[in-house]
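Team,

Forwarding the record for the chain on the shared tracking sheet. I've put the sequence and predicted structure together so nobody has to dig through attachments.
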Amino acid sequence: MIYKGDLVHCPQLGRMEILHDHIIAVNDIGFITHVAPADTPESVQLLRGSQYQSIPKGSFLFPAFYDLHLHAPQFLYQGSGLHLPLMEWLNEYAFKAEEKIDADPVLARTVYRRLAYRLLEQGTGGVVLFGTIKEETNLILAEVMQDSGIRAYVGKLSMDISSRKTYVEPSAMASLEAAFSFVERCNALTIHLPVHDRLIEPILTPRFVPTCSDELLTGLGHFSNERNVRIQSHMAESFDQVTWVKEERGIDDMDVFDKHGLLTPRTIQAHCTFLDPPSLAHVAEHGTSIAHCPLSNAYFSALPFRLREALDNGVKVGLGTDIAGGYSIDIMVAMRQAVAVSRMREGSRVMAHTEGRQVEDKQRNLSIEWKEALYLATGGGAAAMGLHPGAGTFQVGAPFDAQQIRLSHGGLRSSVGPLDLFDLGEGEDKNGEGSETWKLNLEHVEKWWCLGDVRNRITVWVQGRERWPF
């Protein structure tokens, strides 16, 4: 398929490109084969005699989002129960919901199909999912994501310790056997498909250190290393969790994961709000990625994540919604929260320095800007997930995971959804007419970033196939 119009992407942290009137060609297996201005000889030749889809003025193509941390069964009670500390919240809400989903496969399929609908509606083309402890329920989750056309790492929870007696695996050995079995059965779901159509992948998922014995963690580490299987968990998330691990294990949970071979380039760790700069440098040395979930951190962590320090230390960072610890499944909310939290951290640093209080780094600006957040939601998230090179950007050889965004119908008087475009753009007359000369600019994209919602999203593609409207 060939698309002609404006493209916007973030090829690297802090850099955004607006590519006016470009051609992007996608082959039959969903990879980009051509990106260039429409008036180049190659583009002209490509268009000659070919059908193509025109992206109208006032619209642009942007890469799909990647959500690095979401608890699929907790979608059942999204937007409720956020008044408790983490460890109490798990007992009162999370474990109960997950147990309920495990007991009812019809409910599981219903919830997961709705989850897939919402993800695509919000422009999310790839997601890293925590599931439940029951194999069959997680296979339902994997089937639904594959059928819906969403890239998904699906994790069957491993937990042989639990504060809820009815929601726990009977032993470390039983947990390991179930994890190994799930990996095999999940891979078997797509083995008959061409490689480019295999959108789901199993991921080993020790819930977090408080729910996993040393024996279980050791076994998962060995299996991941032998079979090259990805890993996800929570690390250094909240004060009560960090304190519990230190008292029970005598070391920090980062050291627990490291000790058992679970801090690897295949690993995604969520939150990490209690990691100081030296610890973040240690994470970077291991090639481990971090899922930054600013909204849920505001509810469940006593500290904000040191995002700027993580990026400066070379840590691969993407964004996560952390449903249901975060109440919004929209990665755009995560982006906005990430910027807001970083600006508050910078304000605190400035005030501490002004008042003569000790700060970790007197010179480093701790805030990030909106263009950096866009990178984290796209190319940064894809890199953290270890996806195909170039994923999250528009470059030759990358998978075409994209969304079409509409800001207006070509004139300022016809803005879409929550956007109001009052400034006169290039070529506009005072009545907001002149659709043929409407030109997308940086301010238009920023306004979408700040205010846009589902009304601005027209289409979503994953691996070159149209997945939304659902």
